[in-house]
Design goal:
This is Subtilisin inhibitor domain-containing protein. This protein is of the alpha+beta class. It contains five helices and four strands. Strand 1 and strand 2 form a beta hairpin.
């Protein structure tokens, strides 16, 4: 009788060893697969990475400007002056906003006049008008912008950092 009990005891030990070995093998395989994905791949310079890095050196320059703005909102008029020195840390926020708006456009700048052949709606978006004069990145500027028609409204929105009262 004692032999039968010893046999069951040794089978239980063998089963535990087999189960433990399978678990250990699975853990080793898991570590190899997951560990390989965590380790950094060797640095291979691809064309896409090179273009990304070269694109960083082509970041837009901060604008240099001196602008006088006269705004008539239909009830009152006010004048404001904007100086952009080219230093993004020292310049007013309007300088960076105008530069960002000009980057979104077709590289013509934020002050581009409406093309005479442009197809625009005749909607009036408000009574406001503004005259902007001065220099923007070395180019003399003198333009009037209104909110009459969809094309002029698009210009108004592009120049919104200038035509809204400065804080």
């Amino acid at each position: 009788m004692s032999k039968l009990g010893a046999r069951w005891n040794s089978l239980g030990t063998v089963g535990s060893v087999v189960l433990g070995s399978l678990c250990l093998g699975g853990a080793i395989v898991y570590t190899a697969v997951v560990g390989a994905s965590i380790v950094a791949a060797p640095a291979i310079r691809t064309e896409a990475a090179a273009q990304t890095m070269s694109g960083l050196s082509e970041l837009p320059q901060a604008p240099v400007a001196s602008l006088e703005i006269r705004v008539d909102d239909g009830e009152k008029s006010y004048e404001q002056h904007l100086d952009c020195t080219g230093d993004p840390l020292a310049d007013p926020a309007a300088c960076a906003q105008l530069a960002a708006n000009s980057e979104e456009e077709d590289a013509a700048g934020p002050f581009e006049e409406v093309d005479p052949g442009a197809i625009c709606t005749d909607d009036v978006y408000g009574p406001e008008s503004a005259v902007v004069s001065g220099t923007w990145n070395g180019v003399a500027i003198h333009t009037e912008v209104t909110r009459a028609g969809s094309c002029e409204e698009a210009r108004w929105q592009r120049l919104k950092p200038l035509v809204e009262p400065f804080d």
